[in-house]
Every structure is written in C-alpha cells, then in structure tokens.
Amino acid sequence: MEIKKMESIIEAILFTMGDSVEASRIAKVIEQDTETTKKIIRNMMLRYEEEDRGVRILELENSFQMCTKKEMYEYLIRIAKQPKHYHLTDVVLETLSIIAYKQPVTRLEIEKIRGVKSDHAVNKLIEYNLVGEVGRMDAPGRPILFGTTEEFLRRFGVQSVDELPGITQEKIEDFKAEAEDEIQLKLNL
C-alpha cells in the first residue's frame, strides 16, 4: 500500500472516531507495524502544521486524535453555540493536583492529604471528565481508585502525566512551611 493511501486511511479513521485511537489499532488497519505507523502519523502532524490547516493531530501516550487547532476557536463560536466553560476553583485544582501526582489514589487518600472532605471536588472533576475511575483497591470495601483522563492530558497540553512538572524536596518544604503558617494564623484568630 502506498504512503498516500495509508495517510488517507489514517485521516479518515481519526476524523470519524473523534476520540483518540491507539496506534496499534491503526497499524493493524494499514497493515504496518506500530512504530512505522507512528512515524507516518507524526509526518502527517508536521505537514498539517506546515500547511497551517484548521485541524491538527494530537499524540496522547500511545494514541492519536484529530482535533481543531486552538486558533480556530473564535470562528467555531461564530457558527455554534458557545461551549460551557468549567470553573476550576482552588479546591478543585488542589484535588486535581493530588490525583495527577498520586494516581491511582482513593478518595480517602485525597482527604488525608487535603485534611478535609473532598467529595464535591472529586465529583466536579469527574463531571468535567478530568478524572475517572481507574480501578478498585484490593482492600476491604474495594475503594475506587481515581486517575486522570485523556481529557486532562488534552486540557493541560501534555502527552502523558510523565510530562507534568516535578516537585522538588525544596518545594515540598515550602508547602509544609506555608501550611504551618496557615495553621498558626487560624490558631491566633
């Protein structure tokens, strides 16, 4: 099969599926190995950028997805209803950070770290499709384990959670100091 034909097939698959598609599944369809398929798609990604097209292909871990370029957003608003904007409060962002860095994590573990109940924040993150159930812990009651979703990767512009910024020991000490200062302020009130 010639390269143009494979690219057309890949483009049709990604356009039609809407969600991300694993590279291995695409490879089977075009009868190539996974690494060759990834190279073909990455070349398509470069060409899309060079040609300044309205769509682009995202790579999300071992999957690919076709989506609209950010620069086209204002034009899409003109033709469609304005999409719902999610409001990520400090509490929700804090909870999301815990899940992103500690995943898989239970609700109880999140609450231990935060020091308060986190039902509302976790439910909001599930509603926004930024986190989801990734399994169950092998413990009494089989608590739900939460982790980030592909939507999280898309929204935060990373291919995998490995690309999230690292937390140094110095930063951890700063956080501890801030928390202790807050506790002292509350005790003095």
Ordered list of secondary-structure elements with their pairings:
Elements: H1 3-17, E1 21-22, H2 23-30, H3 34-50, E2 55-60, E3 63-68, H4 73-79, H5 90-102, E4 105-106, H6 107-114, H7 119-127, E5 131-136, E6 144-148, H8 150-156, H9 169-188
Antiparallel strand pairs: 1-3, 2-3, 4-6, 5-6
Helix pairs in contact: 2-3, 5-7
How do you describe this structure in short?
The protein has 189 residues and is of the alpha+beta class. It has helices at residues 3-17, 23-30, 34-50, 73-79, 90-102, 107-114, 119-127, 150-156, 169-188; strands at 21-22, 55-60, 63-68, 105-106, 131-136, 144-148. It has 2 domains: 3-78, Orthogonal Bundle (Arc Repressor Mutant, subunit A); 90-188, Orthogonal Bundle (Arc Repressor Mutant, subunit A).
What key phrases describe this protein's structure?
Arc Repressor Mutant, subunit A; elongated; single chain; 2 domains; 55% helix; alpha+beta; 189 residues; 3-stranded antiparallel beta sheet
Question: What this model shows, in words?
Answer:
- The protein has 189 residues and is of the alpha+beta class.
- 55% of the residues lie in helices and 14% in strands.
- It is built from nine helices and six strands, in the order H-E-H-H-E-E-H-H-E-H-H-E-E-H-H.
- The strands form two sheets. The protein has a three-stranded antiparallel β-sheet. A three-stranded antiparallel β-sheet has the order 4-6-5.
- Strand 2 and strand 3 form a beta hairpin.
- The longest helix is centred in the last third of the chain and has 20 residues, at 169-188.
- The protein is elongated, with a radius of gyration of 21 Å.
- The model has no long low-confidence stretch (mean pLDDT 87).
